[in-house]
Amino acid sequence: MDNKETVETSRPKSLRPSKRRLIQLYAALLYNAHVKGFIKGEIYTGNTKAMCVPGFNCYSCPAAVGACPLGSLQNALASSGNRAGFYVFGIIMLWGLMLGRTICGWICPLGLIQELLHKIPTPKIKKSRVTYYLSYLKYFFLVVFAIAMPLWYGLKQGMTVPGFCKYICPAGTLEGAMGLLANPGNDSYFKMLGIFFTRKFAIMMIIGLACIFCYRSFCRFICPLGAIYGMFNKLALVGVKVDMDRCTHCGVCAMSCKMDVRHVGDHECINCAKCMDVCRQNAISLKAGKITLMAPAAGCADDKPDSQEKRARAGRIAWGIAIAVLCFALLWYNVLDQKGDSADVSKTDKNTETTESVETAETAETAETTEEQLPGGNQPGEVLPDFTITCTDGTQFHLADSRGKVTIINLWATYCGPCVKELPHFNELAAAHAGDVEILAVHNSMSKDDIPAYLADKGWDNIHFALDTKDKLVWNNVGGGPAMPQTIVLDRDGKVTYNQVGSATPELLESLYSQAAK
Amino acid sequence: MDNKKVMLYINSALYSLWAILTAGSAISIYLKGAAYQAQGHPEAWIFTREKAMEAFGTFVPVLALAVVMTLICVIKGIRDDSQDKPVADPDLISIYKAERETERDVQAEAAKAKKLHIVKIAVLIAAVIFVIAGIRNGSMEDTLIKAINICTECVGLG
């Protein structure tokens, strides 16, 4: 590296952020408008989460108000044995058609983080033939981790395994795990941390470090969502367009681009429009169909005399509307919309919630609590209030009837990989201590799956399975939250000895049983 | 090597060191905790907030030093601007040259654009049909269910 050429001392051009940076920040805030989620340590559970946002943004982030398209795609593929995930495919196609990789360059929060990391002054790795070929690596991640793995586990083993989220995704670790762990109210989540967290944390650090030295490393070499949107880049309505009448094919645009593009607008181009600044022919502009969104200083060929002025005015109006939308979103998600929070069971108010919900459940048609309620709660040392629930085989499970035995309640869902993975351990425990342990596995009340059909060939005959009632009778009773699996162990007197979120190993289950059986 | 370049290298070394130490401390906590669990304590927590704060707190001075170094570089305007200049790699230039040759074929480009237009309409129709079919077959509800429940495995909690 020649020092004179590469290291320069220059005053920062301006501290004013560029238009693109403002839009990136705006998008990141709009995707994560549920800011109070960080304070409460809970995720948003309102209906807007059915909508996939265009950019990479983990839906387990406490502030996220929409679904991650890549996470949703993997989950849709994993459950394609039950139902084709048309909705997610359609939404991704629509985003791709409208914006292509403009999403990566302008409205992806992870892209913003990468660019900010790259601002740290260190020696930088320039693009080369090596990075050019490495850019194809993201298709490997797309095919293997985001498509093949969820499909394989979903169809062959009936398990939801979103391979990319599980093994690689740094957004999940940063926004989801760190976002939840940062809140002191979520200390119980530390119980779950093990090899998965350690591995993903190390991967996140490596990717973060790589982004400091190499521009958008994750985006260029790993991101499966970028790979998908790249396929739509030529079809996209919005994108950087070249005026072929002005272009002299000098190639400066591609040579100056930090991404591994071969030409402007190809599958690697994130439409950041920085090439507009280097094009001496003023041939490049950012367009939405025939409408020019950003034009070179000299204007476009089809510009009328007042076009620049009109664009500036439209820009101001667009910003006005965008700010109004953002203000409304912040107000809605943090103040007005209580529905998105009420579905959660506040960690601090678990006991209060439980009593209330048991009282509410008395009027429910599908399940009823026993008339005599014991005072208590769901924390260790407290007696769990009785309840009765209808099992999937039609029988009734009365918690009071299991007194004198060790009772284990497991909260699970068919779409929760770790839940499905640990259920055989519960079945083995029940078989090993037949007659002395009752195991009730309660499925989350929200499900589109046919639970009895799912369980038919599993052979988990030693477990009582039930689908929680719509008003979440059991879930609220035991203090279940949005994280699964959760295991609750009761001793022979019905007193809670263990209540934790996280996967259970055979050793842990045996140990919990021994303690409760004393 | 002049002072400015040295500063950039020191800065990169500080950030790398911090990242390695932080990741290393997480691995160390895991290894110790897993070993303890294997010794007949399956209920023991591998990570706790206290352990994490203690481990990561140790390396805060390294990060603070890196941040100070960054600020100095920003204030003094020291940066590696090699990326702002057009690439000089002859291998890459040959790729771009080949690409430009194909761009020159105006007739072929026009034919391609026409085909793309048809594909665009077909994909749009397919996307709309997919979204409607997805709302009808319940896959939209599937998306909601998965998004409002924390996928502990996905975010790396376990």
In brief:
Chain A is of the alpha+beta class and 518 residues long.
Task: Please state the structural category of chain A.
Answer: alpha+beta
> Averaging pLDDT over every residue of chain A, what do you get?
85
* Global outline of chain A: elongated
Main structural class of chain B: mainly alpha
Q: In DSSP terms, counting alpha (H) and pi (I) runs of 4 or more, how many helices of chain B?
A: 7
Would you give an account of this structure?
The complex is a heterodimer of chains A (518) and B (158). With 518 residues, chain A is of the alpha+beta class. Helices cover 45% and strands 10% of the residues of chain A. Chain A has two domains: 16-236, no CATH class; 350-517, Glutaredoxin (3-Layer(aba) Sandwich), CATH 3.40.30. Chain A is built from 23 helices and twelve strands. In chain A, strand 3 and strand 4 (291-294) form a beta hairpin. In chain A, helix 4 (69-78) runs parallel beside helix 9, helix 9 packs across helix 14 (224-232) and helix 11 packs across helix 12 (195-213). Chain B is mainly alpha-helical. Chain B folds into two domains: 3-85; 91-154, no CATH class. In chain B, helix 1 packs antiparallel against helix 2 (49-58). Strand 10 (483-484) of chain A pairs parallel with strand 2 of chain B.
Keywords:
heterodimer; A: 518 residues; alpha+beta; Glutaredoxin; five-stranded mixed β-sheet; 10% strand; elongated; B: 158 residues; mainly alpha; 2 domains; 7 helices; 2 strands
